[in-house]
Design a protein that fits this description.
Chains A, B, C, D: InterPro entries: Gfo/Idh/MocA-like_OxRdtase_N, Gfo/Idh/MocA_Oxidoreductases, GFO_IDH_MocA-like_dom, NAD(P)-bd_dom_sf. 4 copies of one chain form a homotetramer. Chain A has 366 residues and is an alpha/beta fold. Helices cover 33% and strands 30% of the residues of chain A. In chain A, α4 runs parallel beside α5, α5 packs antiparallel against α9 and α5 runs parallel beside α10. The C terminus of chain A is likely disordered.
């Protein structure tokens, strides 16, 4: 590629200089696709401090409107609390910016859907910051499932527990489960489109919100997904088991020496005619095959996400984790909240799936 | 103690020579409290083979009635499928035998309650074979909770998964969860007496019954217990986390070098008056203290259980895991079956003590 | 195979009813190849107790001579302290018995060599009880090396440490290292035939013998083997790493879920001409490939060893772990003792094959 | 503390912008004690790139002499290959700079001793960059040993293996063992002052230097230290076991959830008169007590080291890891090289310990 073909760098601002914003800023700074031009935070000195720390020509803003007025900014990355996403995103879209939003996409499915529609109508990219979907481990899991290495999915069991900060504005489902849900959505070929969801939670400390949560999601073909999120565990576990008819995969994100293990093991079930009375009984046999742990490249997820964000803008296509993916996560979180409010009863997602989809996707693809 | 003070050995027969019976037989053989005098199995040659293997003066029976007629037998240990417990136990009680029954106590709470009543009326011991309650780890957990080392219990999370045999007659809840439930019942000072239970299950292989199960049990004071049982996991996990206001305990039964870990860590929550509008906000602080792993004696659980069985007979007192404990486990299992049959809705245990429905029993197989 | 073709069972006696004898006895009892006919121990009641425990027609002896006079006994398995092996084995060979001897084969290479010669002259089997060589993991390692999966061997690092009993009559090298050495001898296609050995030890408790030991064994082609044995470690480690030019294998014997791991990783070295002055420099590149963990059958090593003992007798061939293998282990142990006595200096094994000095034997206890 | 009491920041330059220099630079930048004023590297553009990256007013030099001429620089941190330390340090000392040198202190003990003498005579600080000695884990180990928690030290076993770059100019001992040796020197109350050392190495790849190394160091009272360093291991292990008469400590640096474990276990040895013939035998008993894992603060080692460097300059005292500590490490490395050249024979350190010590320390303390 000759120098003249190199696309010009896109120009991005980060809104929110709290916990996650600095990570985004650092990755835009070191990306060949992006120029980080501004940091914005209601707390002006905090914006300035981050701007100073990450580079030399980064401006600081405490006023979003002023930032959005700048015509030379192509995109904004939003790392503020979820309840502010709707207002900020709509404003930024109306100012013509492409958008990357921290998870969860919004504080309600309705808000999220409005954001997705607005982006679609304006032909702008709205990308969900589902960071885990850009890690080498999750990309590999998606590939393995897509190529049929696991066979049909039987179950997904995800555990994400740690001694964590009790968040002031959201419960443990909305804080942690977006990770698990966005990953499940990403690795399943059909995405995460359950009919219903059941949730159980507990608030034993009296924090005013669930600090421990269990989420059960019936999948197609009688398969099941289950997510355990917990702010009160003294030990840190981040583990996902995906069982299939052919093989079962274990992802242990805290074991850098063997993050992924693929077990060539399983239970084979044969329906067999037995005595007349009993009609049929299940014959069970075991496979105890080898275990295989694929080598994974060392690549930082945020860097890959920044690249995808730029590519989707340049190619005028939906990014890998688009607004629709963000909506699917929100749909599950909302159904979980409804189930939580009704003693764990399965809460249907049907009827909540307003038809944003095809129109929105088509619009983005132009 | 002089020889004349040594109590005479009690005489026991084992009924059932399948998977568990031989373990019981071996432990009675090597116990100073017991003489194993007979093995009984419908499959006569199997009874004979086990009798030959474990000792020199052990008789073999294929006819239970004949066995129970023997006046010189003080007690029987029953290791047959759960659906046979009710009939066998009633017959044995009527023959005046003390009884140890493999878990679950019975195939329904109603059946179990009848067994408990019959034993009480006859002044005979009916003991549930909740083996884990006799392991050094579980005994230590009970002590730690009793002495207040954990503070108030906030949550219990139990995982028991493995590549396991799909049982012909019960689902994964009835097969594996009795372990978790009997342990929780044993370590909680007040026992396991929940108001309600919620269960989610899946049968992705089409085995005709749940092979993956999740059980949620609200406890007192907004605490929660959760049990994950799974026959389809390629990796074996047997782990229980018990979180308390003071400390949190992790029991990893597959780590012989550090089975119990007590973490002096936790989240402290302080309710604090803040600005007028918001009234109060939770202030969170962390404790990251030391971890402590108590040394455990090397003692086989079955040996301790055989000793307790003998002692309860001699002292005319309820054994540590008595029929009532078995009933509490059955109550939860039945409520789980009802919940499973109604989309995971919280199923109350109240009012089901006396009259257990056939519907619920049928649901066991769902 | 019809019953008439089934070879008659061989008849065996176990000498030594201490720690290891009962294990051998149990395996002969459950083997289809063997009839266990007698137990012998200087402590008569102990012999009787073991005989009673393991079967119904097992005789007990406290007098070896009386045992060896029995013409109906084909073979003896000797599980007594190493210093008694020479006398017992020679007596048993002279009585026409095939022999299995617990490791180490003898208390000196000279004694061992005499035993091997005597067996050879009489056409009798003399087998070393190198139990690990019959485990599925070690058999798999041998296969992988034999088929070239690891490439050329670069290094072997073996660690066998635990809080262990300080043995009354041998140091930690003679107690534990026979395991590591017999395994290395078994898995290397050419066996363990080093030119020299270096040993370092320590006796920090003043036990009168080394309780911590390090053994370095230069192998062919500048490869190296190293063994760490230690009675004083609070944690138990049994791990062997075998590095090859193509792949590296890790055997973690205490991890039943993943005993063997084969890493497709390594350092590639390319000699390359560089600038004129420097002639050549090493270019290094890395391979970070997948990891693979072969499934291993669940088979008890002692059962496989009993089978091999019988097969070698019936076929009139050397067993897999023959007396020569035992001698190779002894040669290394003796050289280690000499090295220990001379400040860790590399001690040659050449010339010591025939005439082992008393000095070296004395050094065993150092 | 009022602003007038705050000591002025010291001014430092980093020499060497390769692998380690950037880490030092970042830590000086974020230290309240230091102003980083310059980066120097023979490769000018590399120096410039690092200077640009870490701050705004950092100058870049490719000429050391020019750098050292600057009177406003108080100290230099040297992160260049070991063979250049002697020349650079002497030049910097002669220019009046305090010095922090990357490990190993020099490429020979003689060179190192000359550096220490020169610094002492000039009253300047010469500090060894023994980074691990500033980690919370190692500081805790030192405290535990100092307060007698382990009792007398019986053995130290250190393993530091990984798939590592084959270094162009040093073997694996000089590359990795300085870590282990400096740690052992730091945690032992008397420092690392062995009489002799034995080393075994291997170069199975033909790299022209040892890539696998074993180092044995007899300690006082028949204790022993052993270090295993290895560039060719596919798995990464960084573990040190320190056995004492009272307790044993395991430091697993790759286990962030439980870096330190203190085992209240051990072997107790009692000399006891036995039967007349045998005079005395060792009676062994076990303690299997609890395990305890102290909480460690999260503190970056390099930050603590920068603080200590500043404090030692201000207070005119030897830093915790002074030049003498660096010399003790060099003495062991040199003895190891001699042992390696003589077949692993114990190589004495006596006579190599020229009396730099007291004079030098006195001079620094002024």
């Amino acid at each position: 590629m000759t120098a003249s073909k190199t696309p010009a760098r896109l120009r991005v601002a980060v809104i929110g200089a709290g916990y996650w914003g600095p990570n985004l800023a650092r990755n835009f700074i070191s990306s060949p696709d992006w120029d980080l031009v501004a940091i914005c935070d209601l707390d002006g000195p905090r914006a300035q401090a981050l701007a100073d720390r990450v580079g030399t020509n980064v401006a600081a803003y405490s006023d979003v409107a002023a930032l959005l007025e700048r015509r030379d900014i192509d995109a904004v990355a939003i790392a503020t609390p979820a309840r502010t996403h709707h207002t900020l995103v709509l404003a930024a879209l109306r100012a013509g910016k492409h958008i990357l939003v921290e998870k969860p996409l919004a504080d309600s499915r309705e808000h999220g859907a409005e954001m997705v529609r607005e982006a679609a109508e304006r032909g702008l990219i709205l990308m969900a910051d589902h960071t885990y979907c850009y890690t080498p481990a999750v990309i590999k899991i998606r590939e393995l499932i897509a190529e049929g290495a696991l066979g049909d999915i039987l179950f997904i069991d995800s555990v994400r527990i740690n001694l964590g900060l009790v968040q002031p504005d959201v419960n443990v489902f909305w804080d942690l489960a977006p990770h698990d849900l966005s990953i499940i959505d990403f690795v399943l070929p059909q995405g995460l489109r359950p009919q219903a969801v059941s949730a159980q939670g507990a608030d034993p400390l009296g924090a005013g919100k669930a600090c421990i949560g269990y989420l059960t999601i019936p999948l197609q073909n009688d398969a099941i997904a289950h997510v355990h999120v917990n702010w009160l565990s003294p030990t840190k576990i981040r583990q996902m088991v995906i069982g299939g008819t052919l093989r079962t995969l274990v992802w242990d994100d805290l074991n850098p020496q063997q993050r992924l293990s693929v077990y060539d093991r399983g239970v084979d079930l044969t329906q067999q005619a037995v005595d007349g009375a009993n009609a049929a009984a299940s014959m069970v046999s075991y496979r105890l095959g080898d275990t295989w742990s694929p080598a994974l490249p060392e690549r930082e997820a945020l860097g890959a996400m920044a690249e995808e964000f730029a590519a989707s803008i340049r190619d005028g296509r939906a990014p890998r984790t688009d607004g629709e993916a963000g909506l699917r996560v929100l749909a599950v979180l909302e159904a979980a909240s409804r189930s939580l409010a009704s003693q764990g009863l399965l809460s249907s997602l049907a009827g909540h799936d307003a038809a944003v989809t095809d129109a929105a996707r088509a619009a983005v693809l132009r």
